[in-house]
Design brief:
The complex is a heterodimer of chains A (339) and B (106). By secondary structure, chain A is α/β, with parallel strands linked by helices. Chain A folds into two domains: 208 residues, FAD/NAD(P)-binding domain (3-Layer(bba) Sandwich); 121 residues, FAD/NAD(P)-binding domain, CATH 3.50.50. Chain A has seven helices and 24 strands. Chain B is globular. With 106 residues, chain B is an alpha+beta fold. Chain B contains three helices and five strands; from the N terminus they run ββαβααββ. In chain B, the strands form two sheets. A three-stranded mixed beta sheet of chain B has the order 2-1-5, with helices on one face. In chain B, strands 3-4 form a two-stranded antiparallel sheet. The N and C termini of chain B lie far apart (30 Å). At the A-B interface, strand 20 of A face loops of B.
């Protein structure tokens, strides 16, 4: 059981800056994120796209913004729990007991949800009959490629993940690569290599086609695909892999007794607290009159939520507002010299 | 101003006036039309404002943006007629446009 003053859910820009604000006022915190990397939407959706409305930064990419926020957090030793989704949140006296998908447990008076538009989950095949094979012979990520040795694997998708795995698995398996159009959104060198292997008969490349249905007794045996002219074709296969990118789902947050408005959480604008004491929501996931889904709004919301956390984490102390330019205490925390 | 008709997967139809200069996605969001999520707010960074546009309209609306098809690859049940509604500009020329919504966005 990890005890901390505040737990932040989400390692996007808002979560990172909120951590900075907590540390600055002398509180400790840890961060959990379902993705296996830091940066949230900035890294997952638009690492290379320039952002033009961060105050005092005329232009930066999602990746640069994330790196700068991490640089700003350097004086503090913050523990990240990546690749873990917060599944349970329960009140225990005055504290919150939190449990992640990997079983990590926290006890904290403050939980700050900086979850963006929810957690990223793989987009799945749409035919319902796929569910019975899911996580066994129908997969959306690969943990151990050895299971494909000598098997027939049908890979769906047209991005880097789909093509990289098609190349890799073509060394040990019989690979069908199926994509809904004939253009790919992967690195050109990868696309060239796939076409070369297709011409050499080492990858069975099928374009302008999509999955129609699957069948099998206990395990996947056959898939049926349909092309743009509605012609269908059956393929024997041992595995089907879908690489259609990630979608965002609110996930377990919906079960925590919070007031929700569509996919957002209602908060007040003083503490950014939800209807549950000690649970805050900041950044894209929160909602209040006039809410703007801007990164700069997330920074403001995080700064105020951090001050609200102080009261519950240090009930016997009084919070005193200080500037980083003049406060000796803050400079000590940052590890910089005071005049 | 243009009249845009949004037809839900269950057949329910909504016709609204959308101001010139907005996108078909914004027209749906501002009029609380269910079935268009627009998680990323129009940045072409998700595929949750996905619509189908029938042949008779497909060539009349503006062409796909660069990278739009890459995002459509990630949509729920993409088809030849798929577009992201955040990339369809509203103008008087598309008065009467009909878009069909998929069964779901995510």
């Amino acid at each position: 059981m990890i005890k901390t003053d505040a737990l932040i859910i989400g390692a996007g820009p808002t979560g990172l800056f909120t951590a900075h604000q907590l540390k600055l006022i002398g509180l400790n915190c840890e961060i959990v994120d379902n993705l296996d990397k830091i940066g949230g939407q900035c890294i997952e959706l638009y690492p290379d796209k320039p952002i033009y409305d961060i105050p005092a930064i005329p232009e930066c990419t999602g990746e640069e913004l994330t790196n700068n926020l991490l640089e700003q957090l350097k004086p503090f030793n913050i523990k990240f729990h990546l690749g873990e989704r917060v599944d349970e949140l329960k009140k225990d006296n005055e504290k919150w007991k939190v449990k992640t998908s990997k079983g990590t447990e926290f006890e904290t008076p403050n939980v700050i949800i900086a979850g963006g538009v929810g957690s990223f989950e793989p987009r799945k095949f749409s035919p319902k009959e796929c569910e019975q094979f899911e996580n066994k012979t129908i997969l959306y990520s690969i943990k151990d490629k050895k299971i494909f040795d000598g098997k027939t694997v049908s890979i769906f998708g047209g991005g880097d993940s789909a093509l990289d795995w098609a190349l890799e698995l073509s060394k040990i398996s019989k690979v069908n690569l199926i994509h809904r159009r004939d253009e790919f959104r992967a690195a050109q060198a990868t696309v060239d290599k796939v076409k070369e292997l297709s011409n050499a008969g080492k990858i069975n490349l099928i374009t302008n086609s999509q999955l129609k249905t699957v069948s099998g007794n206990g395990k996947l045996e056959e898939i049926e695909i349909e092309n743009d002219n509605k012609e269908t074709k059956k393929l024997k296969t041992d595995f089907a892999l879908g690489f259609f990118g990630l979608i965002m789902q609110l996930g377990p947050i919906a079960n925590w007794g919070l007031n929700l408005n569509k996919k957002t959480v209602e908060v007040d604008t003083e503490k950014f607290e939800t209807n549950q004491k000690g649970i805050y929501a900041v950044g894209d996931i929160c909602n209040y009159p006039g809410k703007l889904k801007l990164i700069l709004s997330g920074f403001h919301e995080g700064a105020l939520a951090a001050r609200a956390c102080f009261k519950l984490a240090r009930p016997n102390e009084k919070y005193r507002f200080e500037f980083t330019t003049s406060s000796k205490t803050i400079k000590n925390r940052l590890g910089v010299k005071s005049d | 101003m243009a009249k845009i008709t949004y037809i839900e997967n269950n057949g329910t139809s909504h016709t609204v006036d959308v101001a010139e200069g907005l996108t078909v996605m914004e027209g749906a969001v501002q009029n609380n039309i269910p079935g268009i999520d627009a998680d990323c707010g129009g940045g072409m960074a998700c595929a949750t404002c996905h619509v189908y546009v029938k042949d008779e309209w497909f060539d009349k609306i503006n062409k796909k943006s660069e990278g739009e098809d890459d995002m459509i690859d990630q949509a729920y049940e993409p088809k030849k007629s798929s577009r992201l509604s955040c990339q369809i500009q509203v103008s008087p020329e598309i008065d009467g446009l009909e878009v069909h919504l998929p069964e779901k966005q995510i």
